[in-house]
What we know:
Elements: H1 2-16, H2 23-30, H3 34-40, H4 44-68, H5 73-90, H6 92-99, H7 106-115, H8 118-121, H9 123-133, H10 139-162, H11 171-184
Amino acid sequence: MRAHIAACALKLFQQDGYAAISMRRLAQEAGCTAMTLYKYYDSKFDILSALWAEVFDRLFDELGRIAATECEPEARLNAVALGYVRYWLEHRDHYFMVFMSGGVSQTDVTGFVSGSDTLARFDLLRTSLHAALGEDVDAEGLDLKTELLSCILNGIAHNLITIGGYPWADPEKLVRQAIDGLLAGQPC
């Protein structure tokens, strides 16, 4: 039943947006009562966060497979970074649900990030970047460059998805240039 509710919620969230869906409407779509929904999920955001976790699990499972195919650190970093951007480009509906759901508060997002294993999965970006930079970068510099990498990759995906009328360069070229810049910069 939990999976059925989540599948119905995903359909409604993608169709009408998270903010437009009530628990009563979701119950109707799932063929149950609102009280039944609350047996499986504490809130509408609890359902959305379960969907987010599933999306990030799929993303990072794929990135793990990509990382495992590359032995050379810089090639692995490029492959993982490009895989990250391509995932969102190939799953635009997931991108909109995760990054552009209306009606989600900053407190909700902070709770999701701090209360799930998703944040730990982003460590793949950090370890891939660290291997490509080598041992000369200090922990503070690595943290800064990892945050920058995350911002860059999300920015590339966001622009390619939301500003379709602009003739963007190929995602592979954008990611490659970004990685080259991160690796060429002075250690922090």
